[in-house]
Specification:
This is Helix-turn-helix transcriptional regulator. The chain is an alpha+beta fold. The chain has two domains: about 60 residues, lambda repressor-like DNA-binding domains (434 Repressor (Amino-terminal Domain)), CATH 1.10.260.40; about 100 residues, Jelly Rolls (Sandwich). The protein is built from five helices and nine strands; from the N terminus they run H-H-H-H-H-E-E-E-E-E-E-E-E-E. The longest helix has 11 residues. It starts with a helix and ends in a 10-residue tail after the last strand.
């Protein structure tokens, strides 16, 4: 854990000196220097005092880098294709357990030739177009603004039944950071 580096980054971004933190917290400058260079690990009570001085939640100081905000700019999205019908999948942002994608399905195309299953839970929002979704014995048509969710371990399929390209926002939750083909 690089708590010290995080503290130093926040302190510098906010133009706070080590002396100012020490004055507010009662800690010595030598100790704060060792904290910021990760040479010593402060207690939770000390971290709480430092966090208060920096005006950040204590929890933020304890986050691992991969747990922090994941920013993906529109022009930096990874784009892949999926299935025989080459659905266009734009990979939006993700966390350890949740991935979001924007999937473009051409008219008449589907997520596969037959229903398929995989680990995880999915939530879909139809951004544009008209689709048909089927999971086991459940099936329905969805239009722009409609949404649905399911446990993906039951075979499912999504088809574009409209005359235009369908655009679907999909969020997939899985335990742990396992990569899967969700379509």
């Amino acid at each position: 854990m690089n708590i010290g580096s995080t503290i130093r980054t926040i302190r510098k971004r906010k133009n706070i000196t080590i002396a100012q933190i020490c004055e507010e917290t009662g800690l010595s400058q030598g100790f704060m220097s060792q904290v910021e260079t990760n040479k010593t690990s402060p207690s939770i009570a000390t971290l709480e005092s430092i966090a208060k001085s920096l005006k950040v939640p204590l929890a933020y100081l304890l986050l691992q880098q991969e747990e922090r905000m994941n920013i993906v700019r529109k022009d930096e999205r990874k784009t892949t294709t999926s299935g025989t019908e080459k659905l266009i999948v734009e990979h939006l942002s993700s966390t350890k357990n949740v991935r979001t994608m924007l999937v473009e399905i051409p008219p008449g195309a589907s997520t596969g030739l037959a229903p398929h299953a995989h680990e995880g839970e999915e939530v879909h929002v139809v951004v544009k177009g008209t689709i048909y979704a089927e999971q086991g014995e459940d099936a329905a048509e969805f239009r722009e603004g409609d949404s649905f969710g399911w446990n993906a371990c039951t075979p499912h399929i999504v088809k574009n039944i409209g005359e235009e390209i369908a655009l679907i926002l999909i969020a997939v939750y899985t335990e742990g950071d396992q990569a899967h083909d969700y379509l």
